[in-house]
């Protein structure tokens, strides 16, 4: 979902190049050692973080990890940046770029988790290749993730969830966790779940939240 343009967001992003990488050259890998104080920390990436509630909460709760918010929309990047600055999160970087180039911006096997939260379902068949769980995206995630790396996916869209299960299964992925009603799972699962803005909205309306964790197994 496209956010309404906020002029202040562009200005804020331009004022903080130390926190936001804006439209980098996809032919050049990013040197993340210059962006994080400790590059040895595990790296986790959220693709399409929207307003950033999930990724900023994760960065706050897990200072032992590094996080990258990969977001195409400048307004969303600005909103995330505002939260990052307010919460003082040195372990969070914002990458304003197209997720289709994710394998261009990270070294091979450098991340341990990729989060796909409430992605655009692109319901029309002719738009299948734009879905973030389409096979070409899965191939790119496999390149970026470590051998034991994992994709964690959440959505309120039953059609996208069914499609993603089939797409990942056809790609040969292994499922560690699958649920069609996340918010009615066991307490230990709920305790570790960090809600997104959309998740809170949809769940409060009584809509089920679908979720899965999957990996690529041994390469």
CATH level 4 superfamily: Vaccinia Virus protein VP39
Q: Tell how many strands the DSSP assignment holds.
A: 8
Along the chain, the helix and strand elements come as HEEHEHEHEHEHEHHE
**Tally of helical segments:** 8
Query: Oligomer, anyone?
Result: single chain
The CATH topology annotation reads as: Rossmann fold
What low-confidence regions span 5 or more consecutive residues with pLDDT below 50? none
Structural class: alpha/beta
Across the major sheet, the strand order is 1-4-3-2-5-6-8-7
Task: Output the keywords.
8 helices; 22% strand; alpha/beta; 219 residues; Rossmann fold; single chain; 8-stranded mixed beta sheet; globular; 8 strands
């Amino acid at each position: 979902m496209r956010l309404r343009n906020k002029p202040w967001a562009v200005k804020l992003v331009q004022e903080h190049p130390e926190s936001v990488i804006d439209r980098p050259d996809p032919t050049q890998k990013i040197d993340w050692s210059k962006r994080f104080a400790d590059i040895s920390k595990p790296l986790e990436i959220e693709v399409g973080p929207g307003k950033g509630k999930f990724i900023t909460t994760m960065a706050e709760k897990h200072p032992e990890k590094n996080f990258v918010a990969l977001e195409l929309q400048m307004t969303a990047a600005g909103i995330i940046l505002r939260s990052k600055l307010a919460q003082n999160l040195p372990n969070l970087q914002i990458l304003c770029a197209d997720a289709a180039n994710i394998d261009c911006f990270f070294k091979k096997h450098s991340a341990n988790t990729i989060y796909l939260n409430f992605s655009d379902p692109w319901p029309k068949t002719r738009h299948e290749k734009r879905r973030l769980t389409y096979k070409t995206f899965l191939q790119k995630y496999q390149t970026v993730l470590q051998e034991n790396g994992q994709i964690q996916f959440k959505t309120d869209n039953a059609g996208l969830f069914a499609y993603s299960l089939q797409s990942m299964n056809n790609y040969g992925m292994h499922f560690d966790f699958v649920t069609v009603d996340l918010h009615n799972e066991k307490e230990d699962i709920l305790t570790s779940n960090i809600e997104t803005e959309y998740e809170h909205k949809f769940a409060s309306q009584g809509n089920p939240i679908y979720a899965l964790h999957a990996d690529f197994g041994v390469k």
